[in-house]
Amino acid sequence: MIDIDTPKKPLKAAAAPKFDMPNIEVPEMVRDFAEKGVQQAKEVYARIKSAAEETTDVLEDTYTSATKGATEFNLKALEALRVNMNASFDYTRELFGSKTLAEAVELSATHLRKQFESLSAQAKTLSALAQKVATETAEPIKAGLSKTMKVQ
Fold first, then answer.
1. What end-to-end distance do the CA atoms of the chain give, in Å?
2. What is the number of H-type helices and E-type strands within the chain?
3. pTM above 0.85?
């Protein structure tokens, strides 16, 4: 076996060399360039921050408009559903109360004609409402984009 001598005292860490910074004077042109760079960076940051705030406002307006429009559309659709269900129940009640086959056929023809007219009117109303909602929802985006394009 090989015998290795281990030191009895811990080793001292070498002292870090000291470097003195030379006293260099920065030329005026370099300082001006750096100051202009900092100023430009601040201006770009301000524009980006402003654009982000405007975009947030546009998104909030769009969301509000879309939510309001969707609620209005859903209420109209539910109202149409209620009217159609009531008409179906009334038709069924009248059909079970009919005395003759001719009366049942006449009730069916009348009900189908009324339902067709009602569904056509409801589809027209819901289509117009959907178009209105789409237009109102897109308006804040369109306004924001046109404002952005004017700024640039």
1. 83
2. 2, 0
3. no
